[in-house]
Design brief:
The chain is mainly α. The chain has one domain: Up-down Bundle (Methane Monooxygenase Hydroxylase, Chain G, domain 1), CATH 1.20.58. Helices cover about 85% and strands about 0% of the residues. It contains 3 helices and no strands. It has helices spanning about 5-40, 45-65, 70-85. Helix 2 runs antiparallel to helix 3 (about 70-85). The radius of gyration is 17 Å and the shape is elongated.
């Protein structure tokens, strides 16, 4: 355990950030799962609306550095590609 006052504060901050980052990553995972489920069910309209929600969650998580920005871009690209394969 940390002994110096500054080290104690850093430790507390890292725990708070870990909780925040975990929440952001969970939101991303749930949004991505929802889009993939809609694509699996061949529901294009639902998939497109869920895609915008997922894009927002990915951008926010990348902006807060909970996930890497390139991972966010790659995930969004793959989701968009999957949604575009669903016929109308």
């Amino acid at each position: 355990m940390a002994y110096h006052k500054s080290a104690v504060k850093r430790h507390k901050q890292s725990l708070n950030r870990a909780v925040r980052n975990k929440a952001a990553r969970t939101r991303v995972k749930n949004a991505v799962k929802a889009v993939r489920a809609a694509v699996q069910n061949k529901d294009r309209a639902d998939a497109e609306s869920l895609l915008s929600t997922a894009a927002s969650a990915l951008a926010k998580a990348a902006g807060k550095r909970a996930i890497h920005r390139r991972k966010a871009a790659r995930t969004l690209s793959r989701l968009t590609k999957a949604v575009n394969t669903v016929s109308v």
